[in-house]
Write a structure and sequence with these properties.
single chain; about 280 residues; alpha/beta; seven-stranded parallel beta sheet; two-stranded antiparallel sheet; 11 helices
Length: about 280
């Protein structure tokens, strides 16, 4: 997900509204087809946060320690390896020992949720997921890449071999590919998403660690052209064996497993006491 600065001027207000922004450092995780530091994308967001938050420490995650590996990680480095690497990097950073707030862009949203669930120290205080695919995707219509043929190859691969062992190890997107017509195969062979969603077996630590968040904010972009279904950004997904009707969050298995708090659909009210927020601004 490549970002544009004007779209995120709003998020400066939003960030201050939902977090004690000046108190904690900020950790960012970019999306597919992006890097930590592109000056026209997350790099600009990093600088904007520093400027507007009185030089608050901002750590934009760079997977592998260089920009080339970081870019490739969005497509080819298994999320489990990335999450393990990030957990180690966060644990080593003394500026984060008192806790931090986190913003995940696109797939960075579910990757940071995995960090919150698997690595509770240092403590993540607030997680804001901007367009994350928390129930996976079943379609990749406009995949962002510097090379168009890369996207076309990934689409074909996922359609025919998403749950093959070699595909799961080779393709990041395969690890959160969620086929509603093959739920059993998804749960049995998804090597990332089914695990962090407690669909393989119920991991009590995942649920307990997620509940430690002060707030978990999920933003759904109504005009998103990458994520299918859009409702995955709100932890919702298709009912089984079809790809039209969406199962409400509160009725889903994952909601009962990860119950955080009652949900509030944010509508510019002043009632922000609950810990799980579902938000749907339009992206132009």
């Amino acid at each position: 997900m490549l970002l544009k600065i004007p779209e995120y001027l709003f998020w400066m207000f939003f960030w201050n509204t939902f977090t004690d922004a000046a108190k904690y450092p900020v950790v960012l995780w970019h999306g597919m087809g992006d890097t930590c530091c592109f000056p026209f994308s997350v790099g600009s967001i990093t600088n904007l946060l520093k400027t507007k938050l009185n030089n608050t420490y901002v750590k934009s995650l760079e997977i592998g320690g260089n920009i080339v590996t970081d870019y490739e990680s969005g497509f080819f480095i298994h999320p489990n390896k990335q999450v393990e690497y990030v957990c180690q990097e966060l644990a080593k950073d003394k500026k984060l020992t008192g806790g931090y707030n986190a913003i995940g862009f696109s797939q960075g949203g579910q990757f940071l949720r995995a960090v919150a669930q698997r690595c509770p120290k240092p403590a993540m205080k607030v997680l804001i997921s901007l367009g994350g695919q928390h129930q996976g995707v079943f379609g990749l219509p406009k995949c962002p890449s510097l090379k168009l043929h890369t996207c076309e190859y990934i689409r074909r691969l996922l359609n025919y071999a998403a749950y093959e062992e070699w595909t799961q190890q080779f393709s990041v997107q395969a690890t959160y590919w969620h086929d509603p017509f093959q739920e059993d195969k998804y749960e049995a062979h998804s090597t990332f998403l089914a695990d962090i969603n407690n669909e393989v077996f119920s991991n009590g630590l995942y649920a307990d660690n997620l509940k430690k968040l002060d707030k978990f904010v999920m933003v759904k972009f109504l005009n998103d052209t990458i994520v299918q279904p859009l409702e995955s950004q709100w932890f919702q997904f298709y009912k089984a064996n079809q790809d039209r009707e969406i199962l409400p969050l509160e009725s889903s298995k994952v909601y009962t497993t990860f119950y955080v708090a009652e949900t509030e659909r944010y509508n510019n009210s002043n009632n922000r006491s609950k810990s799980l927020y579902l938000i749907n601004p339009r992206r132009n």
